[in-house]
Design a protein that fits this description.
Helix content: 40-55%
Largest sheet: none
Oligomer: single chain
Structural class: mainly alpha
Order of helices and strands: HHHHHHHHHHHHH
Mean pLDDT: 88
């Protein structure tokens, strides 16, 4: 009986302890200095230099606090104070996103070490899958679509169960983190070069300049130059020939199976990670599998990666982009259709030369003349 009372008391004490711990409020998270700010003092040995750059690091942190707030009380760049929208965005981001993308939005969350490809680092202001031209900022709708559908073939899941209000809020929060990161990188570069930061007026000018590309992106959507023609065996074959003739195979391999499958090295991306050309035969198109999504990847390239824009190459033959889209879609669908991957037997052959018409003679005058 006594033993039972002892165990009951121990369990009650344990419950109180656990309950007490659970009721404690966790300290709000804080931003950490970005890599460029940390680099200011890396490798320094001179005490005077260390003191100067540590002071600059503190000044940068203070400017960022004033202009961008804290993680739980964020301020959109250019605004004076936080908003209910951003507070909701913080709550959604903390619950669903911090584990991978980190508090700073730099892709260094606790889970990032175990993920490949790595979570996106927002602080560079570069987003891969956009509807805007190469080198331009994404439209807000691009980020909403990524949150809604996820990124196929990566650890970025679909958040289609979030409400519209939650998606809008978390996208605004991501934009706030992104622009904070851009400001931090800019200030770190100025500090490194000038050994001082601009005055308040100069910082306001930097903020204004950083916001212009974001404001301009809303009306820079890429739309097809020509309507998509019907997808036929002939258009797929023409696309395959274009794929080979225009060196797409140099990165994606002649069978479209990607750099990793066909042992093609393409370098690194903007974030310093090893890049790999997509395996088109997988049918997993990270930027979206609609024809318009693939069209934009070809036309505009993919920001931050070795995938270039082919806009100028096909400016005199815009239908060629659609033929490439047809080939890529067909290649990605083969597996679903139970067909084997492309092989040598599927390589397009040269079309037989057609007999040239004879030069017109006096007896066979042409029926029309060029004006």
């Amino acid at each position: 009986m006594r033993s039972l009372r002892v165990w009951s008391n121990l369990l009650a004490i344990l419950a109180l302890l656990v309950g007490g711990v659970g009721c404690r409020r966790e300290a709000p998270p804080s931003f950490s200095p970005g890599a460029e700010v940390q680099e200011l003092t890396a490798g320094l040995e001179d005490a005077e230099e260390i003191e100067i750059y540590e002071g600059l690091q503190s000044q940068i942190a203070e400017v960022l606090r004033k202009k961008s707030g804290t993680p739980d009380k964020p301020i959109a760049l250019g605004d004076e104070e936080t908003s209910d929208q951003l507070k909701l965005g913080y709550a959604v981001y903390t619950h669903y996103c911090t584990q991978c993308h980190g508090v700073n939005g730099d892709g260094n969350g606790p889970a990032a070490t175990y993920l490949n490809p790595k979570p996106r680092n927002y602080t560079h202001g570069v987003f891969k899958f956009t509807s805007t031209p190469y080198g331009k900022k994404p439209r807000r709708a691009d980020l909403i679509r990524t949150v809604r559908r996820g990124v196929t073939g990566t650890s970025m899941p679909s958040f289609d169960r979030l409400s519209d209000q939650e998606v809008d809020a978390v996208v605004d929060y991501v934009l706030a983190l992104t622009q904070r990161g851009e400001l931090e990188r800019e200030l770190a570069m100025i500090a490194y070069e000038d050994e001082e930061l601009p005055n308040e007026e100069g910082i306001e000018e930097i903020v204004s300049e950083l916001l212009v590309p974001w404001q301009d992106s809303s009306d820079q959507i890429v739309m097809p130059i020509t309507p998509m023609p019907p997808m036929t065996d002939e258009s797929v074959l023409a696309g395959h020939k274009l794929f080979l003739d225009n060196a797409c195979n140099k990165c994606h391999g002649k069978f479209g199976r990607g750099g990793s499958m066909e042992k093609v090295e393409v370098g690194t991306d903007t974030w310093g990670n090893k890049a790999a050309a997509a395996d088109l035969s997988s049918g997993m198109f990270r930027g979206g599998d609609r024809p318009i999504d693939i069209y934009r990847r070809i036309y505009s390239g993919i920001n931050g990666t070795p995938m270039p824009a082919f806009e100028k190459l096909f400016q005199d033959n815009p239908d060629a982009i659609w033929q490439l889209v047809h080939f890529i879609k067909s290649t990605g669908d083969r597996r679903r259709q139970g067909k084997p991957p492309l092989s040598e037997a599927d390589m397009p052959t040269e079309e037989p030369a057609t007999e040239q018409p004879a030069e017109p003679t006096k007896e066979t005058e042409p029926t029309a003349k060029a004006a």
